Model the fold of this input.
Amino acid sequence: MHPRVVEIPVFHVTIWGFGLMMAVGFLSALWLVRRLSRRGGLDAETMSNMALYALVVGVIGARTFFVLHHLDQFRGEWLDVFAIWRGGLEFLGGVIPAVGFLLVYLRVRKLPIRRYLDVLAVGLMMGLAFGRLGCFLNGCCYGRPTELPWGLRFPYRSYAYVSQINADPKRDRSHPYLDVPPQEYAQSYAADGTWYPKPLQVLTEQQRHEVTKGRYRCLPIHPTQLYASVHAFLLCGILYRLWCRSLMITGSNRYRNRSRRPGTVVVGLCLLYGPGRFVLEAIRDDNPYELGTLTISQIMGLVMLAGGTVLLGVLLRCGANVCEKQPSPANGIATVGEPHMG
Done:
């Protein structure tokens, strides 16, 4: 965990790990979607503009979603709402408004919706993979305590540590994991009773030993940020293979094999990411329960799975009368047209 990657006190400049990995993720995704656009016969500049617009809309939606779910953290510090470089974005809360915007944009521009969204789906997973590494550097999106050998102990005063020294009624946890005496270690209290520990440098030598090596050190937790990053990289590879299949020519009717129709990649994203996110949420320890023991992300993961199933049925039933061009001699890949309907 390294929230601040670089600090230059002379110029009052701080490079935050979360913001850095967000930038790396976006640039990587942009490079990928432009490359796939050229290969698939789509306009790379249009794709770049769409990616930038979707990023802005998505970040606003993701931050709004996070703030609404963690209002107590911002009471009295409302300017922190805009400090997105320090973390605090809900991925699915950003995807929904971004996809809504893209559908309207593509419809207005009369562009082939399924083909553009297929490419963006691959790029989205690439960007998410790097973004989750930013979550790891920032310490957010942390997991439950575990005794598995790869469990990681996060630092004193990290998000995970603060969670472990407090009860969490929003997750039906009435007692803290660590019985740290607040009368000795508390620096401040939130309106909901959550207490925050003193900086390490003001503790006594014995207290520092207790919170770093002794009985009050952070319990090992699932590195859910790394799980999520690996999951996103794997999905990026799988979706890329699905996209490659959608460019393959199969006899006189390239869509005789329905798994190669435009839209397959988006369907694959819904069917694979939804259940994966559901499982990852089950071992995370940060998001509050919304319905029983389900978090909002788990509920949305189930909605994605259901939506993907419906879209798969529509895709399998839709007509295959799609015009196409012959493959170019350069790479043997067709530039395929598609009706202007998603």
Observations:
- The radius of gyration is 23 Å.
- Residues 44-69 form the longest helix (26 residues).
- The chain has a mean pLDDT of 85.
- The longest strand covers residues 4-8.
